Amino acid sequence: MSNHLNTSAMASNTTLNHTSTNDSLTIASTPVTLSLTTSTTTVTTTPFNSTTAGPGFWPSLLDKIPLPRWAIYAIIALILLVILICVLCCCVKCCCKGKKKKKKKSDQKISLKGINGTTTTALVQPETEDVEYGSADKRRGKLLYSLEYNAARSEMGVGIKEASELKAMDHGGTSDPYVKVYILPSKSKTFETKVFRKTLNPVFNEYFKYQISQKELGESTLVMQVYDFNRFSKHDVIGELRLELSTVDWNHVMEEWRDLSEPSKHEQEHLGEICFSLRYVPTASKLTVVILEAKNLKKMDHGGYSDPYVKVQLILEQRKWKKKKTSVKKQTLNPYFNESFTFDVSFEQIQKVQVVISVWDHDKMSRNDAIGKIFLGCDATGNQLRHWADMLSNPRRPVAQWHTLLSADQVDSTLALKHTLRIPFTNKTF
User: Fold this and answer.
1) Global confidence as pTM
2) Do residues 259 and 238 touch, judged by C-beta distance below 8 A?
């Protein structure tokens, strides 16, 4: 009998050792000298442990992710929320599009009130092309100006009073208008009014004077162009007025409203645009000019390109004072420079100095040609004066702006430089 019990104990011990690989706790809690009944009970619990080791697909997948369960559930909830928001946005956008289309259709309906039955063309909806180029919806606005001439002084006065119902050029339904005034064909002097921000009905009340003889009056055309100001891009023309001065009755002062027309396509050739920044530090008496880039320059070479470089020149008391120039960019009409130049200019001098920025085409075999010029300073007007004023009102901060190049003759005649005669050997002793 004892042999039988020992054999049973050994079998039980063997069974427990075999199951110890599955559950270490069972081994620790079960004594070695167990009866046959105990070993049988242990064996019957083994299938239960094997079922807990192999759970369902999703729990096993979640167990493999090295994150707490609450973090996993939070991420899943966030993803579902984002998907729901995207679906809602798509639905709202589709609904808005449908409403806009319905509104457009309702707006395009023609009101039949006040239309006589004998008129047939009034009932026809114009095509899109007709609306763009030939309808009254393309109105550019009106300009009130005045003209007078003083024969004794050979002086013509142009008054830019106000504008009304200008065309909106900005996305907000407004414009930043200003008026440019010049005389053709000489275009020796160009004036610009102040810029009025975000308005379609600006009141300028500015007056400009031109020295012009009676003979020249009969051969000249007065041009008044209304522009929309943009700091970092080309200024857009809203509309213009062109007035043949030979048709004006100069016996009295003329003042009238006139509708702006589409700008002439036969304007003087486009010379290009240049972007540069100005910075002045009063405490250090330093003026820094950074030539950034130019674009759409005039073609000067036979191959349809230019070899542009920029010259920066300071004019003081109508005399050339200091100058520096950039490197030459080969065969391009849109050069990028990003070159900086610093000048020593005192606070007293900064109020008198003129900065001339000129773009030149480099030629190895012949003389370099001027593509265009621009000048800034307290004596400048319009866009150039605004840039200069912004620099002075924001010391130590660079102010960048695009400018349209003018002809070299126009800038030189405006500055009226005094040329000094250089006599050689003045400091030499013989």
Assistant:
1) 0.46
2) no
